[in-house]
Amino acid sequence: MKNSGFTLKKRLKSFRYAWHGIGLLIRYEHNAWIHTFAAVCVIVAGCLTGLSATEWIAVTFAIGSVLAAEAFNSAIEALADRVNESYDEAIKRTKDLASGAVLLLAIAAAVVGLIIFVPKLFPVSL
């Protein structure tokens, strides 16, 4: 691909493509629906419990990381399916690794959520 230089028009177009990709993720990827639902629940809970700025940063990075990983996973799966529609052990391994990465981030996000919300929802008085 030839690089013909920087223009504001091209940068704005690239943002339009990126927003389209986010729309595709939210509209068509079933696992992204689950992650989005969880994100909305966490944002509502954060508003209700009065998260600190630091807690919002952690929650924002957790949500963004999981959704970005889901987008990467979906892109890898779509490309792998396009390259080879029949069963291929290397493609299966690649897809399993990508979905495993999403699971790892989702678990880490859940741990972040527990660390932040459990003390707010179940305060322990000594």
From TrEMBL:
Protein residues bound to substrate: 70, 99
UniProt keyword Transferase present: yes
Cofactor entry: Mg(2+)
GO MF entry, a single one: metal ion binding
Positions annotated to bind a divalent metal cation: 29, 77
Residues reported to bind ATP: 17, 29, 77, 95-96
Broad class of where this protein is predominantly found: membrane
InterPro entries: DAGK (IPR000829), DAGK_sf (IPR036945), UDPK (IPR033717)
Biological processes per GO annotation: phospholipid biosynthetic process
GO cellular component, one term: plasma membrane
Keyword RNA-binding tagged: no
Note on cofactor: Mn(2+), Zn(2+), Cd(2+) and Co(2+) support activity to lesser extents.
Compartment list: Cell membrane
Keyword terms: ATP-binding, Cell membrane, Kinase, Lipid biosynthesis, Lipid metabolism, Magnesium, Membrane, Metal-binding, Nucleotide-binding, Phospholipid biosynthesis, Phospholipid metabolism, Transferase, Transmembrane, Transmembrane helix
Highest taxon listed in the record's lineage: Bacteria
Topology in the lipid bilayer: Multi-pass membrane protein
Residues annotated as the enzyme's active site: 70
Record field: transmembrane: 32-51, 57-76, 97-118
Family stated for the protein in its record: Belongs to the bacterial diacylglycerol kinase family.
Protein name (record): Diacylglycerol kinase family protein
Organism: Phocaeicola barnesiae
